[in-house]
Amino acid sequence: MARIVGSITTSHVPAIGRAIARNLQSDPYWKPFFDGFPPVHRWLAEARPDVAVVFYNDHGLNFFLDKMPTFAVGAAAEYRNADEGWGIPEMAPFRGEPKLSWHLVEQLVARDFDLTTCQEMLVDHALTVPMALLWPGCERTGAWPLRIVPIAINTVQFPLPSAKRCWALGEAVGEAIRSWPGSERVLVLGTGGLSHQLDGERAGFINKDFDLQFMESLVHDPRWATQFSIHELVEKTGTQGVELVMWLAARAALGEGPVKRVHQNYHIPISNTAAGMMLLEPAA
To answer: Least crowded by CB within 10 Å, which of 9, 78, 181, 182?
Structure first.
């Protein structure tokens, strides 16, 4: 059966993509952030995942305000990105894993999740930036070493799914992956956050204490954030900080059992954002 080798959660702000494109990894502003990733690169080289199931949020490239699904699963053979206006170069396409995608869709619908299934799907910086962070250089060569299954969660237009519902989604995805009758080694990736607000009266808001408490909870009390409503999470993390529900879904995919914290990094600010990263794997 397929096996989940671990989960990685990371911020995805477009400025990271611009920094990669301009080779600014050693710039004093960016270095504390990028220095968090070499241990993850070494872990990936050993773990050798075949597929990444990616929880992310679309920012208007594939879905817009006129059609905004709560949950959408990609079932394409290939995923491309496009110019979003952030100055991030377009990347080579990502290979999909349609059979696993359809298995997830069927299992999730059987669990009463109402999904949008996408046989064509553009992916934006919320997916491309983390991929470039985890496999540096592949954004230029296109030699991505694994296939992807993107799962988009609406964090853009209210009403948003609750943290509890996003946990349930991740939990169901994890169970579906482990029931897949293949030998794939699966990485679960959750992108977004952490606390930040880009507009309005609280523009520039960052809540370091809450961020660190949330990160710690993913190891020792993973359902902790599900006690909060979406409006409470917006208050605690900022309008865009609610993206932490992707981290929650990725953690839920590992299951209720104990996990090992392999590595983490937290740095502020990056483009008015608290940037976090965690690498967890199921405890032996």
So the answer is: 181
Residues with a known catalytic role: 125, 196
- pTM (2 decimals)? 0.96
| Burial of residue 7 (number of CB atoms within 10 Å: 0-12, 13-18, 19+) | buried
Q: What is the architecture, at CATH level 2, of domain 3-274?
A: 3-Layer(aba) Sandwich (3.40)
| C-alpha distances in Å from residue 284, one per residue of 93, 148, 197, 258 | 35, 25, 38, 9
Query: Encoding tokens for residue 156?
Result: 């853009």
Q: Are 36 and 78 in contact (CB under 8 A)?
A: no
Cβ proximity of 280 and 251 under 8 Å: yes
Report the alpha-carbon distance of residue 45 to residue 28 in Å, rounded.
Answer: 27
The model's confidence at residue 204, banded by pLDDT at 50, 70 and 90, is confident
Q: What is the pLDDT of residue 182?
A: 86
Per the DSSP assignment, residues forming a β-bridge with 280 are 7, 261
Query: What span, in angstroms and rounded, lies between the C-alpha atoms of 9 and 284?
Result: 20
Measured distance CA(36)–CA(120) in Å, rounded: 34
Domain positions in the chain: 3-274
